[in-house]
Amino acid sequence: MSVSWEVVPSVAEAFASVLVEELTTRTGHGRLYPLFLSGGPTARLAYQALADVTAASGPVWPQVEIYWGDERCVPRDDPDSNYRLAREALLDRIGETGPVHPMYDAGPPEQAAGAYRQLLTGLPTLGIVHLGLGPDGHCASLFPGSAGAAITDPGCLVVANTDPHGVNPLPRLTLTLPAIARADLVVFTVSGASKRDALARVRAGDDLPATHVTATRVRWLVDEAALPRSGAS
Ligand code: 6PG
Q: How far is the CA of 39 from the centre of ligand 1 (A)?
Protein backbone atom coordinates (compact mmCIF):
# COMPACT_ATOMS: atom_id res chain seq x y z
CA MET A 1 0.00 0.00 0.00
CA SER A 2 1.23 3.51 -0.72
CA VAL A 3 -0.21 6.45 1.21
CA SER A 4 0.23 10.11 0.32
CA TRP A 5 -0.80 13.24 2.21
CA GLU A 6 -1.45 16.29 0.04
CA VAL A 7 -2.18 19.68 1.61
CA VAL A 8 -4.18 21.67 -0.90
CA PRO A 9 -5.82 25.13 -1.00
CA SER A 10 -9.15 23.69 -2.15
CA VAL A 11 -10.03 20.08 -1.43
CA ALA A 12 -12.90 20.17 -3.94
CA GLU A 13 -10.69 21.45 -6.77
CA ALA A 14 -7.90 19.03 -5.88
CA PHE A 15 -10.40 16.17 -5.86
CA ALA A 16 -11.63 17.17 -9.31
CA SER A 17 -8.17 17.25 -10.85
CA VAL A 18 -7.10 14.00 -9.15
CA LEU A 19 -10.22 12.27 -10.44
CA VAL A 20 -9.78 13.51 -13.99
CA GLU A 21 -6.14 12.40 -13.95
CA GLU A 22 -6.82 9.01 -12.36
CA LEU A 23 -9.91 8.21 -14.44
CA THR A 24 -8.17 9.22 -17.65
CA THR A 25 -5.30 6.85 -16.85
CA ARG A 26 -7.49 4.00 -15.72
CA THR A 27 -10.16 4.00 -18.44
CA GLY A 28 -9.91 3.32 -22.15
CA HIS A 29 -8.92 -0.32 -21.82
CA GLY A 30 -12.16 -1.62 -23.28
CA ARG A 31 -13.91 -2.32 -20.00
CA LEU A 32 -15.92 -0.36 -17.48
CA TYR A 33 -14.06 1.04 -14.48
CA PRO A 34 -15.77 1.38 -11.07
CA LEU A 35 -16.03 4.62 -9.11
CA PHE A 36 -17.58 4.56 -5.61
CA LEU A 37 -19.14 7.86 -4.49
CA SER A 38 -19.62 9.25 -1.00
CA GLY A 39 -21.92 11.70 0.79
CA GLY A 40 -21.72 14.79 2.99
CA PRO A 41 -21.13 18.48 2.32
CA THR A 42 -17.48 18.07 1.28
CA ALA A 43 -18.48 15.44 -1.25
CA ARG A 44 -21.10 17.79 -2.69
CA LEU A 45 -18.50 20.50 -3.30
CA ALA A 46 -16.05 17.95 -4.69
CA TYR A 47 -18.62 16.57 -7.15
CA GLN A 48 -19.65 20.04 -8.28
CA ALA A 49 -15.98 20.83 -8.97
CA LEU A 50 -15.59 17.53 -10.82
CA ALA A 51 -18.63 18.29 -12.97
CA ASP A 52 -17.19 21.75 -13.73
CA VAL A 53 -13.82 20.43 -14.91
CA THR A 54 -15.42 17.59 -16.83
CA ALA A 55 -17.11 20.12 -19.08
CA ALA A 56 -13.65 21.43 -20.05
CA SER A 57 -11.48 18.35 -20.12
CA GLY A 58 -13.29 15.68 -22.02
CA PRO A 59 -15.34 12.57 -21.50
CA VAL A 60 -14.19 9.45 -19.74
CA TRP A 61 -17.58 9.04 -18.13
CA PRO A 62 -19.17 6.49 -20.48
CA GLN A 63 -16.45 4.09 -19.36
CA VAL A 64 -17.00 4.71 -15.66
CA GLU A 65 -19.48 2.56 -13.74
CA ILE A 66 -20.97 4.42 -10.78
CA TYR A 67 -21.46 2.86 -7.34
CA TRP A 68 -21.80 4.20 -3.79
CA GLY A 69 -19.48 3.47 -0.88
CA ASP A 70 -22.21 4.21 1.62
CA GLU A 71 -25.82 5.29 1.71
CA ARG A 72 -28.45 6.44 4.16
CA CYS A 73 -31.51 4.15 4.12
CA VAL A 74 -33.97 6.71 2.77
CA PRO A 75 -35.76 6.96 -0.59
CA ARG A 76 -33.61 8.18 -3.46
CA ASP A 77 -35.35 11.56 -3.64
CA ASP A 78 -34.89 12.25 0.09
CA PRO A 79 -32.65 15.24 0.91
CA ASP A 80 -30.47 12.89 3.02
CA SER A 81 -29.87 10.48 0.13
CA ASN A 82 -26.27 10.22 -1.07
CA TYR A 83 -27.67 9.12 -4.44
CA ARG A 84 -29.64 12.35 -4.68
CA LEU A 85 -26.57 14.38 -3.72
CA ALA A 86 -24.47 12.75 -6.44
CA ARG A 87 -27.25 13.17 -9.01
CA GLU A 88 -27.61 16.87 -8.29
CA ALA A 89 -23.91 17.71 -7.96
CA LEU A 90 -22.42 15.41 -10.61
CA LEU A 91 -24.43 12.87 -12.54
CA ASP A 92 -27.07 15.21 -13.94
CA ARG A 93 -24.31 17.53 -15.17
CA ILE A 94 -21.85 15.24 -16.97
CA GLY A 95 -23.90 13.54 -19.64
CA GLU A 96 -23.68 9.85 -20.30
CA THR A 97 -21.88 7.59 -17.82
CA GLY A 98 -21.52 3.85 -17.58
CA PRO A 99 -24.20 2.01 -15.57
CA VAL A 100 -25.29 3.68 -12.32
CA HIS A 101 -25.94 1.44 -9.30
CA PRO A 102 -27.77 3.18 -6.44
CA MET A 103 -27.26 1.41 -3.13
CA TYR A 104 -30.71 1.81 -1.59
CA ASP A 105 -34.28 2.73 -2.38
CA ALA A 106 -36.67 0.90 -0.06
CA GLY A 107 -37.07 -2.15 2.16
CA PRO A 108 -35.09 -3.67 5.04
CA PRO A 109 -31.47 -2.46 5.14
CA GLU A 110 -30.11 -6.03 5.52
CA GLN A 111 -31.89 -7.07 2.33
CA ALA A 112 -30.51 -4.08 0.41
CA ALA A 113 -27.02 -4.81 1.78
CA GLY A 114 -27.29 -8.40 0.55
CA ALA A 115 -28.33 -7.24 -2.92
CA TYR A 116 -25.41 -4.79 -3.17
CA ARG A 117 -23.01 -7.41 -1.85
CA GLN A 118 -24.19 -9.68 -4.65
CA LEU A 119 -23.71 -6.90 -7.19
CA LEU A 120 -20.09 -6.35 -6.13
CA THR A 121 -19.13 -10.00 -5.95
CA GLY A 122 -17.02 -10.82 -8.97
CA LEU A 123 -15.81 -7.27 -9.62
CA PRO A 124 -12.08 -7.72 -10.24
CA THR A 125 -11.38 -4.40 -8.51
CA LEU A 126 -13.38 -1.79 -6.66
CA GLY A 127 -11.55 0.83 -8.73
CA ILE A 128 -11.60 4.26 -7.10
CA VAL A 129 -13.36 4.73 -3.75
CA HIS A 130 -14.01 8.28 -2.53
CA LEU A 131 -14.20 8.68 1.26
CA GLY A 132 -14.75 11.59 3.64
CA LEU A 133 -13.66 11.75 7.27
CA GLY A 134 -16.23 12.43 9.99
CA PRO A 135 -15.29 14.47 13.08
CA ASP A 136 -15.61 11.18 15.02
CA GLY A 137 -13.18 9.38 12.70
CA HIS A 138 -15.77 7.53 10.65
CA CYS A 139 -15.47 6.99 6.93
CA ALA A 140 -18.11 5.62 4.58
CA SER A 141 -20.70 4.55 7.23
CA LEU A 142 -18.14 2.75 9.36
CA PHE A 143 -18.64 4.38 12.75
CA PRO A 144 -16.31 4.00 15.75
CA GLY A 145 -17.47 1.06 17.86
CA SER A 146 -20.00 -0.16 15.28
CA ALA A 147 -20.36 -3.78 14.20
CA GLY A 148 -19.79 -2.84 10.56
CA ALA A 149 -16.41 -1.30 11.31
CA ALA A 150 -15.23 -4.52 12.99
CA ILE A 151 -15.79 -6.78 9.99
CA THR A 152 -12.66 -8.53 8.75
CA ASP A 153 -14.19 -11.25 6.55
CA PRO A 154 -12.85 -10.55 3.03
CA GLY A 155 -16.02 -12.05 1.54
CA CYS A 156 -18.29 -9.56 3.32
CA LEU A 157 -18.23 -6.50 1.12
CA VAL A 158 -21.36 -4.58 2.17
CA VAL A 159 -23.33 -4.44 5.43
CA ALA A 160 -26.16 -2.55 7.06
CA ASN A 161 -24.79 -0.46 9.92
CA THR A 162 -25.80 2.13 12.51
CA ASP A 163 -23.87 4.53 14.72
CA PRO A 164 -23.87 3.06 18.27
CA HIS A 165 -23.22 6.54 19.65
CA GLY A 166 -26.19 8.06 17.81
CA VAL A 167 -24.10 10.91 16.42
CA ASN A 168 -24.75 10.06 12.77
CA PRO A 169 -28.46 9.51 12.19
CA LEU A 170 -30.33 7.00 10.04
CA PRO A 171 -29.64 3.34 9.31
CA ARG A 172 -26.93 3.01 6.69
CA LEU A 173 -25.44 0.69 4.12
CA THR A 174 -21.68 0.68 3.79
CA LEU A 175 -18.69 -0.94 2.21
CA THR A 176 -16.64 -2.81 4.80
CA LEU A 177 -12.91 -2.30 5.37
CA PRO A 178 -12.08 -5.56 3.50
CA ALA A 179 -14.14 -4.29 0.55
CA ILE A 180 -12.37 -0.92 0.50
CA ALA A 181 -9.07 -2.82 0.60
CA ARG A 182 -9.95 -4.15 -2.86
CA ALA A 183 -9.81 -0.66 -4.37
CA ASP A 184 -6.97 0.41 -6.62
CA LEU A 185 -7.20 3.88 -5.14
CA VAL A 186 -8.93 5.52 -2.19
CA VAL A 187 -9.23 9.30 -2.30
CA PHE A 188 -9.99 10.92 1.06
CA THR A 189 -11.25 14.51 1.13
CA VAL A 190 -10.85 16.30 4.47
CA SER A 191 -11.79 19.94 4.81
CA GLY A 192 -12.29 22.30 7.73
CA ALA A 193 -11.43 22.75 11.38
CA SER A 194 -14.15 20.32 12.53
CA LYS A 195 -11.97 17.50 11.16
CA ARG A 196 -8.78 18.64 12.90
CA ASP A 197 -8.93 16.25 15.87
CA ALA A 198 -10.00 13.25 13.81
CA LEU A 199 -7.28 13.85 11.25
CA ALA A 200 -4.61 14.20 13.96
CA ARG A 201 -5.80 10.95 15.53
CA VAL A 202 -5.74 9.11 12.21
CA ARG A 203 -2.23 10.37 11.54
CA ALA A 204 -1.20 9.20 15.02
CA GLY A 205 -2.56 5.72 14.28
CA ASP A 206 -5.37 5.79 16.86
CA ASP A 207 -7.98 3.06 16.60
CA LEU A 208 -10.58 4.76 14.36
CA PRO A 209 -12.27 3.30 11.27
CA ALA A 210 -10.46 5.70 8.92
CA THR A 211 -7.09 4.65 10.37
CA HIS A 212 -7.70 1.11 9.18
CA VAL A 213 -8.44 1.94 5.54
CA THR A 214 -6.13 0.19 3.12
CA ALA A 215 -6.03 -0.05 -0.68
CA THR A 216 -3.33 -0.33 -3.31
CA ARG A 217 -2.98 3.44 -3.05
CA VAL A 218 -4.51 5.94 -0.62
CA ARG A 219 -4.40 9.69 -1.36
CA TRP A 220 -5.40 12.06 1.43
CA LEU A 221 -6.42 15.51 0.18
CA VAL A 222 -6.57 17.87 3.15
CA ASP A 223 -6.79 21.63 3.57
CA GLU A 224 -4.88 23.87 5.99
CA ALA A 225 -7.91 24.27 8.25
CA ALA A 226 -8.00 20.52 8.93
CA LEU A 227 -4.34 20.41 9.97
CA PRO A 228 -3.22 20.83 13.59
CA ARG A 229 -2.65 24.49 14.45
CA SER A 230 1.03 25.34 14.57
CA GLY A 231 2.31 24.81 18.07
CA ALA A 232 -0.39 22.18 18.70
CA SER A 233 0.52 18.50 18.62
C1 6PG B 1 -22.14 10.18 4.55
C2 6PG B 1 -20.72 9.87 4.22
C3 6PG B 1 -19.76 10.08 5.34
C4 6PG B 1 -19.03 11.37 5.05
C5 6PG B 1 -18.41 11.92 6.31
C6 6PG B 1 -17.64 13.18 6.07
O7 6PG B 1 -23.02 9.59 3.98
O8 6PG B 1 -22.34 11.06 5.38
O9 6PG B 1 -20.41 9.08 3.24
O10 6PG B 1 -18.85 9.09 5.60
O11 6PG B 1 -18.05 11.17 4.09
O12 6PG B 1 -19.44 12.15 7.24
O13 6PG B 1 -18.44 14.07 5.37
P14 6PG B 1 -17.89 15.50 4.98
O15 6PG B 1 -16.50 15.27 4.49
O16 6PG B 1 -18.78 16.02 3.95
O17 6PG B 1 -17.91 16.30 6.22
A: 5
Using CA atoms, how far apart are residues 52 and 123, in angstroms rounded to an integer? 29
> Which residues contact ligand 1 via a Cβ below 6 A?
38-43, 70, 82, 132-134, 138-140
The closest residue, in CA terms, to atom 7 on ligand 1 is 39
Of residues 103, 210, 197, 209, the one with CA closest to residue 159: 103
**Quick one: pLDDT at residue 199?**
98
Tens digits of per-residue pLDDT, 50-100? Answer: 999 987 766 689 999 999 999 999 999 999 999 999 999 999 999 999 999
CATH of 2-167+183-190+205-226, one of 3.30.420.200, 3.60.10.10, 3.40.50.620, 3.40.50.1360: 3.40.50.1360
Q: How close is the Cα of 41 to the center of ligand 1, in Å?
A: 7
* 102 DSSP assignment: -
pTM over 0.90: yes
**Tens digit of each residue's pLDDT (9 = 90 or more) over 105-136:** 999 999 999 999 999 998 999 999 999 999 99
Q: Where are the domains of the chain?
A: 2-167+183-190+205-226
Give the separation between CA 132 and CA 146, rounded to whole angstroms: 17
Cα(71) to centroid(ligand 1), Å: 10
**Average pLDDT score over residue span 27-48:** 94
Cβ–Cβ under 8 Å, residues 155 and 135: no
